[in-house]
Amino acid sequence: MAPAASFIKALFKQTIDKGKSFLLSVPLKLKILGLALGLILFFGAVTIYNVQKALKENMDDFLKEESRFIAAGLSYQVYDYLLINDLYGLTQMLRDMVQSRPDLRYIFVRNSTGQVIAHTFEGGFPADLLMSPAGIPSSSSELRLLHTNEGKIWEASAGISNGSEGVVLVAVRGDRLQRQIEGITGALARTTLLVAAFGMLLSLGLTWLITRPVGRLLKATRAVQDGDYSVRLIPAETKDELGKLMEGFNAMVLSLASADNARLEKEYLQRDFLHRVMAGQEGERKRIARELHDQTGQALASVMVDLKMLENAKNESDTSQSIGRLRKAITEEMAAIHDLAVALRPSVLDDLGLVPAVEMLVRSFIGRQGIMVELTVIGFAEKRADACTETCIYRVVQEALANVARHAQATEVSVLLEWRGDKIRGVIEDNGIGFDPDMVDAKTSLGVLGMQERTQLLNGTFRIESSPGEGAMLVFEMSARAGICHE
Ligand SMILES: Nc1ncnc2c1ncn2[C@@H]1O[C@H](COP(=O)(O)OP(=O)(O)O)[C@@H](O)[C@H]1O
Ligand SMILES: [Mg+2]
Fold it and tell me: Could you tell me which of 55, 63, 37, 33 has the C-alpha nearest to residue 186?
């Protein structure tokens, strides 16, 4: 039994789920229409059923009583005719009675031997009626229900002179009352249909009220989906939940529009920054090319001259003088090329890592600017961060120190690098003239923007704390394991 029960349960659940998903997928219009129509038709059907049932019960009782009453009344009259043996008069009286009362289907009289002695049938007495029980009832009348092709017929019999002289049978037809009941039922059904039609109109109006704003909302949502943020809904006409929904929609579109604007602006700034970075790179290349051409080219040319002189040297002192000049020129050139290479990208950064590279940077800064720099490195030990993280931090420190040299007029600088957990934090502080970071012009200040972009690219944070006369502090933090490097 258990599997069968669980199968039925599963089937039941499946049917309910199917019905639910069907109801959910039906359009709102149909839902409301279906609800209204269903309710009206249900009430109509129940009312018609109840009224019909009550009327039918009443009808049966009424017909029973009527047939009994007429039969009982007639039994005395018939007895009078029998006493004077006026069968013709009796038949005439019975026919008159049937004609004057449309409810009466027929009447006939049997004598004590069961013979039909008078009846109301014009064309002879129907044979099937003879099949009816011939027994003579006693004083109480008997009743039977005949189902004929003319409908229900109640036939009551009453004994004449307590049954000793025969019996009178009276049949009352139900079809007329039945037709009346059908008429009432028909009228009720028509009323129900009328109400249903009216209900349909009403619910159509209601759905129109509901679905029109919903349709507008849908249209507006599609427009927003396609990127049109200028759509607005006019919620003034509805003050209900739909109106509130429209207000909410408008607010949402407004904030979407401003978010989109911000995104576009950011995109524009990024593109603009990229252009400027590229222009900066091109400028840098130009500078290096010029340096190579002007300085290295010049130096090599003078080396050539010295070599020529060496070739033509006539005595020992000329030779040693030329060799000395050559050595000096080559040494200077080596230093210049080294500086150039370091400026481009210090090989120490790749070979030895961030800390030695920053140490070198700081040393050269002190040497060149004569400004005190205190460098503190915590938690690095022999560890190496990802290459892109190292490059990023190196460039940030380089730019920060360059800014100190160019703008700060500082006498002391401190550089702190701290590796804690999987994060590297850096703080570069100077005691210079300071500036307002909010006033930095994003269009011309490639340095600050570059530092910001570099750290953001590695999901790091970057901020400058400074105000005029207060010195400047630059703080950044990023993951030591920034991932794949795109450089
Ligand atoms: N340490 C600092 N002290 C004072 N002013 C600074 C400092 N760093 C940056 N600034 C100010 O911020 C501006 C923007 O710097 P930056 O973006 O590097 O551009 P640039 O160095 O090319 O002028 C500088 O012009 C300068 O006015
Ligand atoms: Mg700068």
Answer: 55
Which residue ranges in the chain fall short of pLDDT 70? 1-2, 130-141, 235-238, 483-487
Q: Minimal CA–CA distance to 399: which of 378, 415, 379, 381? A: 415
**Reported pTM:** 0.51
Nearest to 213 by CA among 240, 236, 241, 242: 242
Check: CB of residue 176 under 8 Å from CB of residue 63: no
CA distance 285 to 207: 71
pLDDT given for residue 2 in this prediction: 65
Ligand 1 centroid distance, CA of 377 (Å) = 25
d(CA 401, CA 378): 20
Nearest CA to ligand 1 atom 20: 445
pLDDT attached to residue 165:
85
Helices then strands, each counted (H, E), the chain: 11, 10
pLDDT of residue 309: 87
Give the N- to C-terminal CA distance of the chain in Å, as an integer.
72
- Closest ligand (CA of 464): 1
Cβ(374)–Cβ(414) below 8 Å: yes
Helix/strand/coil for 335: helix
Give residue 136's pLDDT: 43
As given in the structure block, the two tokens for residue 344 are: 């481009």
Among the atoms of ligand 1, which is closest to the Cα of residue 406? 21
* Both tokens assigned to 454: 């570099």
Give the Cα separation of 33 and 46 in Å (integer).
Answer: 20
State the pLDDT at residue 138: 42
